[in-house]
Each structure stands twice: as C-alpha cells, then as structure tokens.
C-alpha cells in the first residue's frame, strides 16, 4: 500500500508523518526534503522548523536547532 492511493496510510502509528509526498509519508513541518510543502528542499546549512527553512546558526528563535531560543546574552554565529 502506498500513500498516493491510500492517504490514510500516513496517519498510521509509526509512520514518518501525516502527509504524502511522492508516494512517501512525510511530515512537512520537519522534513528537509519537503519543508512546508512537497518538494521544497532546505539548503545544506538549513533545517526545516515548523514548515520553514531556517539557518539554525543565525536564527535567534532556532538557536542550534528548531524551537531553541538563544539564551540571554548569547547570539547565534554571524558571518563576518
């Protein structure tokens, strides 16, 4: 059974996510190859956080990882 024919397959326990992209179950909120929508790829230095590609080395709301705010006084790495 593939999700392109049986959409409910992706909602089963143990599946990667509730969305079907190219016959695979994914979570478009966290999947770097399908970020926010099927086929939208994040760049190498980015992570898919909440359906958006962000650079976790430069984003104070996603400091080193998704949904990790930088501690007070700590700023993410900046290019010089």
UniProtKB/TrEMBL annotation:
It comes from the Eukaryota. InterPro entries: Stig-like. Pfam families: Stig1. Keywords: Signal. Belongs to the STIG1 family. This is Stigma-specific protein, Stig1. It comes from Musa troglodytarum (fe'i banana). The lineage of its organism: Eukaryota, Viridiplantae, Streptophyta, Embryophyta, Tracheophyta.
């Amino acid at each position: 059974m593939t999700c392109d024919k049986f959409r409910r397959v992706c909602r089963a326990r143990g599946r990667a996510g509730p969305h079907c992209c190219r016959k695979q179950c994914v979570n478009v909120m966290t999947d770097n190859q399908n970020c926010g929508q099927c086929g939208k790829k994040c760049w190498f230095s980015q992570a898919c956080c909440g359906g958006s590609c962000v650079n976790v080395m430069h984003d104070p709301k996603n400091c080193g990882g998704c949904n990790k705010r930088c501690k007070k006084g700590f700023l993410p790495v900046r290019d010089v």
